[in-house]
Amino acid sequence: MPYKMSLTSIRESSNRIRIKEIDTAKGIGMLLVVFAHVNYTPFLLNYIYSFHMPLFFVLSGFLFDKEKYSSFTDFLKRRLKNLVCPYILFAVISVLFECVIEIYGNGFSLEVATIFCEGITGVFLSRGSSDFFNAPLWFVLCLLAVEIIYFFVSKLKSGFIFIACIPLVVLGWFLESEYFMFNNKLLPWSIDSALFALGFYALGNLMSGRAKKYIFLLSKHKNKNLICAGIIVLCLAAGIPLAMANGKVSLGSKILNNGFIFYATGIIGTVLVVCAGIMLRKSRFLAWCGQNSFYIMAVHYLCRVSLRYVYKLFDIQIYDKTSLKETILPYFVILFISILFAYCYEKLKKLCVCHICRRKSCHQN
Fold first, then answer.
1. How many CB atoms sit inside 10 A of residue 181's CB?
2. Buried-state track 208-235, b at ≥16 Cβ within 10 A, e below 16
3. Distance between CA atoms of residues 55 and 263, nearest Å
4. Three-point CA angle 298, 286, 267, nearest 5°
5. Quick check: 119 and 133 in contact, CB under 8 A?
6. What confidence score (pLDDT) does residue 362 get?
7. If we measure between CA atoms, which residue out of 233, 285, 212, 250 comes closest to residue 16?
């Protein structure tokens, strides 16, 4: 039997291939995120929004390993270094960028100081996408809130983890629904959205062992492309009608509509993208985009804003966001600039790390 092997071998092999399939899936997801922020065609917007944020919560949960952390302090230190510090850097840059645009458009005034103070407040409170000039950054502290909650929930026995998450998810749904007369802006770090998204994260983590096994087996199957294509077609057939029935949803804007349908479309869409990641696992470009998805996310929205001002500067008619034809060129321009920035930033960061390491080595010698 060509695929007969021990479960241990499968786990070891799946750990080696995780970056290829999962990073490729993250890369595909990030390209869809950028597209959804450029093109507002109702059908495409509703469908992409039905799963693009759940996808990243599921994949983040998929990669979470509580055994890596000796304590909560160790966990928090790593997340501060790898998630919060880059977030603060790009969030503050975004606030300064907004102030520059205000000065360029209306000159320097007290309004600039107001924008700066409100922007900095938004950076630390992060109460949803409306708090940000660079809207996608809301996701970062929301993810941190999810991970902090799940760190403690994961201490339970595996059979009780998902049960413990259910009431928290329901609470998050109620907080973002019309059933409670509640001002969501009182909650920092988009905790209401984090509670709702906790189920996606938990599902990704609880299914990670089995999912790695199936990803490994499928990636080695001689008919993997045919099988994945079939699954993608089924996911489209099931996901599109559900997404259209539920209408536009947005975790960042706190619009969930029917939470059951949102969970269904989120899971179906995640399966679709992972299957696409298996089919395209040899794409170094998509894998690279997945590995650098944070930086693409952090700058593409600013690129979109900048492009609008370039259009005005050269007296070019602003493109119709609901026209697929008119948004193709802006999409590729914004994507190119975002990828170029991510590439340069990655190289600069490596250069700085090497320089610091050399200085430490020389100092020790």
1. 5
2. beebbeebbebbeeeebeeebeebbeeb
3. 11
4. 80
5. yes
6. 61
7. 212
The backbone torsions φ and ψ at residue 181, rounded to the nearest 5 degrees and listed phi first, read: -85, 80
Q: How many CA atoms lie within 13 A of 210 on its CB side?
A: 5
Q: In terms of C-beta density within 10 A (0-12 exposed, 13-18 middle, 19 or more buried), how is residue 317 classed?
A: exposed
Q: Alpha-carbon dihedral of residues 156, 157, 159, 161, nearest 10 degrees?
A: 20
**b or e along 74-111 (b: 16 or more beta carbons within 10 Å of the residue's beta carbon)?**
ebbeebeeebeebbbebbeebbebbbebbeeeeeeeee
Tell me the pLDDT tens digit for each residue of 202-231. Answer: 999 999 988 888 888 888 888 999 999 999
Query: Cα–Cα–Cα angle for 195, 94, 192, nearest 5°?
Result: 10
Task: Flag residues of the chain having pLDDT under 70.
Answer: 1-19, 178, 181-182, 184, 353-365
Cα separation, 23 vs 290, whole angstroms? 4
Cα within 13 Å of Cα(22), Cβ side: 22
At residue 254, the pLDDT reads 87
CA distance 118 to 21: 40
Report the predicted TM-score, pTM, of the whole model to 2 decimal places. Answer: 0.90
Q: What angle do CA 13, 19, 25 make, to 5 degrees?
A: 120
**69 conformational bin, left if phi > 0, alpha if psi -120 to 50, beta if neither:** beta
pLDDT attached to residue 19: 62
- Looking at the DSSP bridge assignments, the partners of residue 255 are 250
Contacts of 323 (CB under 8 A, 6+ apart): 41
What is the longest distance spanned by two Cα atoms in the chain?
A: 74
pLDDT at 355: 59
Q: Which tokens belong to 177?
A: 């629904």
- At residue 356, the pLDDT reads 64
